[in-house]
């Protein structure tokens, strides 16, 4: 008997080591390659939360961005600590110097944010382990944690300063307490479930769908009481949880109260508008029609998990519905309502794979439950062997893909190569056409610097419209250095009218000398299809010459293909440009 107890204790100790290794692997996969692009910032949407945190530091609160947010509060605290450290060591002496440092060297601020997201993503893995351990077993918890640790979509998005991974983590914590409501029904579980659900909602509005699994958990908890209907809607626990939820949402996102009609309008437009997109929103008239979103998100989940694990998760979901275990039903209720609501959206351009992040923990948990149950009847040694083989088969595809991505992203980007070549070969102050709006190129293209004169013009435009941006670019002028160009911006059809694409003859007429484009991206991109025909017109124009192409590769060069064109025509130019 003593030998059996010792073996059992040793097995439990090994499980702790295994959990540590899984979490270490999850963090490594989320840290490795996150410095991609530095000192330049190539990732889309990262600036929103960072800039909101910096604006909060100046005493300015953004009441307009109400659908997403919350994450910037954490970044604000981190940047305040960063400021204090820099001030103590003497790197900066004032808030003004700190702001100038942010504009001059933003990469350090973004690195802090990316590390924070990676840690939150790893925390999400740990919370999945806790749920699996509580519902099923430690073994199932470890398997679920591993499934999420190597999930391609979760790991790759854990390297970005966006609200999706934080919201997914908070939603998973809320589900943990929803499950504890089923198991114990303690008032503290209601309070914590409401609190974390509120945090998830202020981080990103779609987390409001957590109310469905919470309601299911509450129903299971009160199902044996005499006055179920009254207790469900008006019980003390219900009222307390709703008050806490509303307090967190309203205090954390006060703009929601001021812009509530805007939220209602957006919801109605997204789900109930039958009018063509060009009529309901003129800015979207050039977009490609959206696909069947049920199939789109289905494919996104398959890509994120890998085909073997995805198919297994579907079987696990069916099995969970068949078992009708209360905890499983709570998880499945959240997954189904979330998937269905997003798939019913009619917004012509708001659909991205990352929207499915919150349901990945559920699929990992259901899969781990089924796998552990399938092997539970075998002897210990055989069970261990079957589990190891099965887990390896299920995680090898997503694990390989995320390792390959991280390795690739640890190398120099095509846009960095292009920037270096341009600054060495194209004269400063040349008139260059590039994707962007008003003041600077978009993050996804080559980070050329706009001229001082163009920035001054933009500052004048921002004075009345957006005083925050006016202040930002005033600081930018103060630290502007290096090679600058007279940038002519073009944007996608959903951009500002002044920056929409015009015919090639227009750019010749205004004296554009060079063009920097990402031609391969325009072929299938749903927002940029007009640029495809524009590039084709360049290739057939005898007065336009392709100077250089920077080609990405699958292993050591990330980024889009970049092509640099030169207009050789002298018809409209006051001074001849350099011909290569």
Quick structural overview:
The protein has 580 residues and is α/β, with parallel strands linked by helices.
Distance between the terminal alpha carbons, to the nearest Å?
A: 85 Å
Largest sheet: 7 strands, mixed
Query: Low-confidence parts lasting 5 or more residues at pLDDT below 50?
Result: 275-287, 573-577
Number of helices: 26
Whole-number average pLDDT?
A: 86
Structural class: alpha/beta
Total strands:
7
Rg calculated over all Cα atoms:
27 Å
Which band does the percent of strand residues land in?
5-15%
The number of domains is 2
What is the 3D shape? globular
Percent helix, as a range, is: 55-70%
Give descriptors for this structure.
63% helix; 2 domains; seven-stranded mixed β-sheet; alpha/beta
Report on this model:
By secondary structure, the protein is α/β, with parallel strands linked by helices. The chain has helices at residues 2-31, 47-57, 71-89, 95-104, 107-135, 138-149, 152-157, 164-183, 187-203, 211-222, 228-234, 236-252, 255-258, 260-272, 277-280, 293-305, 307-323, 326-343, 360-375, 380-409, 414-425, 452-465, 467-479, 504-509, 519-522, 529-540; strands at 431-437, 440-441, 449-450, 484-490, 514-517, 544-550, 562-567. Strands 1, 2, 3, 4, 5, 6 and 7 form a seven-stranded mixed beta sheet that branches. Helix 5 (107-135) runs parallel beside helix 19 (360-375). The longest helix has 30 residues, at 2-31. It is globular and about 85 Å long. The termini are far apart. Mean pLDDT is 86; it is low at 275-287 and 573-577.
Strand and helix layout:
Layout: H1 2-31, H2 47-57, H3 71-89, H4 95-104, H5 107-135, H6 138-149, H7 152-157, H8 164-183, H9 187-203, H10 211-222, H11 228-234, H12 236-252, H13 255-258, H14 260-272, H15 277-280, H16 293-305, H17 307-323, H18 326-343, H19 360-375, H20 380-409, H21 414-425, E1 431-437, E2 440-441, E3 449-450, H22 452-465, H23 467-479, E4 484-490, H24 504-509, E5 514-517, H25 519-522, H26 529-540, E6 544-550, E7 562-567
Parallel strand pairs: 1-4, 1-5, 3-4
Antiparallel strand pairs: 1-2, 5-7, 6-7
